[in-house]
Design brief:
Blueprint: E1 8-12, E2 18-19, E3 35-39, H1 45-48, H2 79-85, E4 94-99, H3 105-118, E5 123-127, H4 132-142, E6 149-153, H5 157-167, E7 171-175, H6 192-209, E8 213-217, H7 230-234, E9 237-242, E10 249-257, E11 265-271, E12 274-277, H8 281-285, E13 296-303, E14 306-318, E15 326-329, H9 333-346, E16 354-360, H10 372-384, E17 392-394, E18 397-398, E19 404-405, H11 410-419, E20 424-428, E21 441-445, H12 448-456
Helix pairs in contact: 5-6, 9-10, 10-12
Length: 457
C-alpha cells in the first residue's frame, strides 16, 4: 500500500456491518447490494474525550449524592405528543422521530416548538433539507410566528454543536439526521459512519447541557429508520409516525421509551393548517361504519392508558386458486390465520378453502389479543352473511382450544363503549366475575362456538 493512501472498508448501509472486501449480500441483515466503500472508521478526538457532565472528566459518585432534577418533565403544548412521550420532554432526553416522507414529522415538530416558544422558551430548529425562507413559509401556514423560535440551515455537525453550546436553547430540533456530516470523515452525509458519528456528537452535547433534542429520521422502503441499527440504541425514545396518503389520520406510536410506556399512541388529523389533535379517536374510527353490513365487528383495544374502539372488517369469498389468498391490514397475519383454523376446527365454519381478507378500518394497527373475538365474529358474520347488531361490542382472547379468555381493564372498555351508545357487550365469561351491573347488557361466553351461537343462533 502506497504512502498516504487512506485505508477503507466496505460498510452495509442498512445495518452497519463492515467487511474488508465488497459482498453482494450482507451477513448481518441479509440485504442485497447494500455495501459501500468508506474510510476506515476511527472515532474522532471529540468522541474519545466526551463526557456527559460538563467539560471536565467525571468520576463515579453514590446515587444518593446525585442531585435530582427540580422538574422532570416539560410539556410540549401538544397533548397527544406529550402522551406518547410519557408526559413531556425530559431534560437531556433524545427523541428520534421516524416515518414515511410527507407523513407530517417536520410539521408536528414545528408546531410543537412553536408552542414551546410561545411560553417564552428559546428553541433552535436546525434544518439540513429546507432553507430558512421555506421554513418560514411552512410556519406561516401553520400559524407559527414566534420570535423565540430560531431557525438555521446547517449540515456540519461540529458547527451545530458549537452553536448549541453558545446559545444554550431550551430545546433543539434537527431535521434530519441523515443530512448532517462530520468533518472528521470523508464519507457522504447519510452513510453509516456519518450517521453514527453525528448522532454521537449531538447526544453527548445535549446530555452534558441537559437540553431536550428531537432528531428526524428518514425511513427505508421496509419502514425502518435509515442508517445503522445502533442509531435507535443511542437515543432515549423512538417514535414512529404511521399512516398513509389515503387517510387523513396519523398515529404516533412509541417503539422505545426510557422514560415512559411504549403502549401509548397519539392520534392526529392532517388538516389545511397542519396536524390537529384527535381527542376522541373511537368516535373518528367508527364514524363511517356501514349500516347492516356483514363482516363488520367493533372491539375495544387498550393502547396504553387509552381505550380505542375500532372496527374490524372481514371478507370471506370462495377461492378459485390452488392456494387461497390471505390479506391482512392492521393486524398480525399469523394471528388471523390461527383464528381461521380455530373457526374451522372448533366451530365447524369451513373457511380455510376461501380467500380471507381482514383489515382494521381507519388505518390503525392493533396488536392486542383482546381483538381476537371481534376477528372471529367478523369472519363468521361475512361467511354466514349475517350482520352483527350495531350496538354490540366484542372483546376477548381466543386460544387454540377454541376457548375465550378474559382480558384486563374490562370495565374501562365497557365504559368507553357506553359513551358511544353501545348497549350490548360479548366477552369472556371469566371477566364477568369482576364486573358490576351497568347499563350495558353483558353476555359471557366460554368458547368460540358459543359466541357464534349467541350472535347468529
Amino acid at each position: 500500500m502506497g504512502k498516504g493512501r487512506v485505508k477503507t472498508e466496505y460498510v452495509c448501509q442498512s445495518c452497519g456491518y463492515s467487511s474488508i472486501k465488497w459482498l453482494g449480500r450482507c451477513p448481518g441483515c441479509e440485504s442485497w447490494n447494500s455495501f459501500a466503500e468508506e474510510p476506515l472508521y476511527r472515532p474522532s478526538s471529540a468522541l474519545q474525550t466526551r463526557t456527559f457532565i460538563g467539560d471536565e472528566p467525571s468520576s463515579p459518585s453514590p446515587l444518593t449524592h446525585v442531585e435530582s432534577a427540580p422538574q422532570s418533565r416539560y410539556p410540549t403544548g401538544i397533548e397527544e405528543l406529550d402522551r406518547v412521550l410519557g408526559g413531556g420532554m425530559v431534560p437531556g432526553g433524545v427523541v428520534l422521530v421516524g416515518g414515511d416522507p410527507g407523513i407530517g414529522k417536520s410539521t408536528l415538530l414545528l408546531q410543537a416548538m412553536g408552542e414551546v416558544a410561545k411560553r417564552g422558551k428559546r428553541v433552535l430548529y436546525v434544518s439540513g433539507e429546507e432553507s430558512a425562507r421555506q421554513i418560514r413559509m411552512r410556519a406561516e401556514r401553520l400559524g407559527v410566528t414566534e420570535e423565540n423560535l430560531l431557525v438555521w440551515t446547517e449540515i456540519l455537525a461540529e458547527r451545530i454543536t458549537e452553536k448549541i453550546k453558545h446559545l444554550r436553547p431550551f430545546c433543539v430540533v434537527v431535521d434530519s439526521v441523515q443530512t448532517l456530516y462530520s468533518s472528521s470523515f470523508s464519507s457522504s452525509p447519510g452513510s453509516v459512519t456519518q450517521v453514527r458519528e453525528v448522532t454521537a456528537l449531538l447526544v453527548s452535547t445535549v446530555k452534558s447541557l441537559e437540553i431536550p433534542l428531537f432528531l428526524v429520521g428518514h425511513v427505508t422502503k421496509d419502514g425502518s429508520i435509515a442508517g445503522p441499527r445502533i442509531l435507535e440504541h443511542m437515543v432515549d425514545t423512538v417514535l414512529y409516525f404511521e399512516g398513509s396518503s389515503g387517510h387523513t389520520y396519523r398515529v404516533l406510536r412509541a417503539v422505545k421509551n426510557r422514560y415512559g410506556s411504549v403502549m401509548e399512541i397519539g392520534v392526529f388529523e392532517m388538516a389545511d393548517r397542519g396536524l390537529k389533535e384527535v381527542r376522541n379517536p373511537s368516535e373518528i374510527f367508527l364514524a363511517e361504519r356501514p349500516e347492516e353490513s356483514s363482516g363488520s365487528a367493533v372491539t375495544a383495544s387498550l393502547e396504553g392508558t387509552r381505550v380505542v374502539l375500532v372496527e374490524i372488517q372481514a371478507l370471506v369469498s370462495p377461492s378459485y386458486l390452488g392456494m387461497p389468498r390471505r390479506t391482512v391490514v392492521g393486524l398480525d397475519p399469523s394471528r388471523v390465520a390461527l383464528i381461521g383454523a380455530v373457526l374451522e376446527k372448533k366451530a365447524g365454519i369451513r373457511i380455510l378453502n376461501h380467500d380471507i381478507f381482514v383489515k382494521v378500518a381507519g388505518g390503525l394497527r392493533v396488536e392486542e389479543p383482546a381483538v381476537d373475538l371481534a376477528v372471529v365474529a367478523s369472519l363468521a358474520s361475512n361467511f354466514l352473511d349475517k350482520p352483527i347488531p350495531r350496538d354490540t361490542l366484542l372483546f376477548g382472547e381466543v386460544g387454540l382450544a377454541g376457548e375465550v379468555r378474559g382480558v384486563t381493564h374490562s370495565k374501562q372498555r365497557i365504559n368507553e363503549a357506553e359513551k358511544l351508545g353501545f348497549k350490548r357487550c360479548i366477552l369472556a365469561e371469566d371477566s364477568l366475575k369482576t364486573l358490576k351491573a351497568s347499563g350495558t347488557t353483558l353476555e359471557g361466553v366460554k368458547t368460540v362456538k358459543e359466541a357464534i351461537d349467541v350472535l347468529f343462533g
